[in-house]
Design a protein that fits this description.
single chain; alpha/beta; Rossmann fold; 2 domains; seven-stranded mixed sheet; 10 helices; 30% strand
Length: 328
C-alpha cells in the first residue's frame, strides 16, 4: 500500500542514497513501504513497537546508530521531542535527514524551523501531512542535542523530552503516592513506572524487599535508573500487559496509561489490571489510580475477589483490589 513517504520517494520530492544504512527515528506503527528493508536500522523507544518491527524482520536498536548514509524522522507529538530527534538523526547521518509528519503534530512549524538552520527541499503534502528533506550543517543543532540530555524537573527528578509528564509528576501519581499504606512489604512491582516518581514513594516503605520497575519506554526507564539508586530496585524494559515475574508478587502499584497517541484506549489499563492479577500471590494486593471516567471497576471485579474505592478527588479515583484470580 502506498504511503505519504513512498509517494514522495516515487515523485522525487525526497531521495535515498544508493548505498549505506538508513537510520529511522520515531517509528510508532508507521509503514516503511518504499524503503529498502535490508538497509534500515530503527531506533525505537517503545518496547511494544520494537518487538513489532523486529518480528517484521527489521533491525531494531534503542540507541542512535552511527555512520548512517541518511536518516528518517517520523514527527512525534511533542515539539521539543521532535527537535531532539532531528538532532540525533542529523548527528547519525552527517546532517542529511528526511521528515514525515502529520499536520496535527506540528510538522509545518518544524519545517519552518529546520529551514532557518539548514537547507530544505520543497515539502510534499499528502493525507494531512508533509514529507521533506533537509541538510543541517554540523553544529546547527547542538542546542537540540543538549536538550535531549534532559535535566531536573520541578520535583527534582531527572527527565528527558518525550517522557510522560516530564515537567513534574502528574496529579494522579501524587494522589496515589500519598495514599500508599506504610505496611507495603515483600516483592512489589510498579507497572508503567515511568521516570520513577511512584517507585521512590514505594521504596520509602521499609518492608519492601524488592521493587520491580516495569516500563515500556526506554527513555523513561533510563531516567528511572538515574532517579532510583536504591539497591532493592530492579529495572525491566518490558510491556506491563505481558511482563511476568519469576516469583509471584505481594503487591502491584500503578497509574496505567490510557492513550495510544491521541486516541483514548482504556483497554490498556484493563490489560494492566489483568496482568497484575496474574502476577500476584493469592494474598497479593493492587493499588492504583485512574481518571474517574475510565471503566475499570468491572475489569477489577472480574480479576479480584474484593474491590473498593479508597479515595481520590473530582478528577481521579484511588482503587484497591485483593484476592486476585490466578487466570492469566
Amino acid at each position: 500500500m502506498d504511503t505519504r513517504l513512498s509517494l514522495a520517494l516515487d515523485a522525487g520530492h525526497v531521495s535515498l542514497p544508493e548505498s549505506g544504512r538508513i537510520a529511522v527515528f520515531g517509528a510508532r506503527g508507521q509503514s516503511l513501504a518504499g524503503l529498502p528493508a535490508e538497509r534500515l536500522v530503527l531506533c525505537v523507544d517503545d518496547v511494544v513497537e520494537a518487538r513489532r518491527y523486529a518480528a517484521q524482520g527489521y533491525e531494531v536498536t534503542q540507541e542512535a546508530p552511527g555512520a548512517a548514509a541518511a536518516a528518517l524522522v517520523f514527527v512525534p507529538r511533542g515539539r521539543l521531542e521532535g527537535r531532539v530527534l532531528f538532532a540525533r538523526a542529523a548527528e547519525a547521518s552527517g546532517g542529511h535527514i528526511m521528515v514525515d509528519g502529520q499536520k496535527t503534530d506540528g510538522t509545518e512549524s518544524h519545517f519552518r524551523e529546520l529551514r532557518k538552520r539548514g537547507s530544505c527541499g520543497a515539502a510534499f503534502s499528502k493525507a494531512h501531512g508533509k514529507v521533506f528533506e533537509c541538510t543541517l550543517p554540523d553544529g546547527s543543532y547542538v542546542d537540540w542535542l543538549q536538550a535531549g540530555a534532559g535535566g531536573l524537573n520541578a520535583d527534582g527528578f531527572h527527565t528527558v523530552p518525550g517522557v510522560f509528564s516530564a515537567e513534574k509528576a502528574d496529579a494522579g501519581s501524587r494522589l496515589l503516592a500519598e495514599a500508599l499504606p506504610g505496611t507495603l512489604k515483600g516483592e512489589i512491582a510498579d507497572f508503567g513506572a515511568g521516570w520513577g516518581y511512584l517507585s521512590r514513594s514505594v521504596l520509602e516503605r521499609g518492608g519492601v524487599e524488592t521493587l520491580h520497575l516495569v516500563e515500556a519506554s526506554a527513555a523513561a526507564l533510563g531516567c528511572a535508573r538515574v532517579n532510583i539508586t536504591d539497591p532493592r530496585a530492579r529495572f525491566h524494559w518490558d510491556d506491563a500487559t505481558r511482563w511476568s515475574p519469576r516469583a509471584s508478587l505481594d503487591a502491584v502499584v500503578m497509574n496505567p496509561p490510557f492513550h495510544a497517541g491521541r486516541k483514548g484506549v482504556p483497554e490498556l489499563g484493563q490489560a494492566f489490571i489483568a496482568n497484575a492479577a496474574a502476577a500476584l500471590k493469592p494474598t497479593g494486593q493492587l493499588w492504583m489510580v485512574a481518571n474517574r471516567h475510565l471503566p475499570y471497576e468491572e475489569t477489577l471485579r472480574a480479576h479480584f475477589g474484593r474491590v473498593e474505592e479508597t479515595g481520590g478527588d473530582g478528577r481521579f479515583k484511588l482503587l484497591h483490589a485483593a484476592k486476585p484470580s490466578r487466570k492469566r
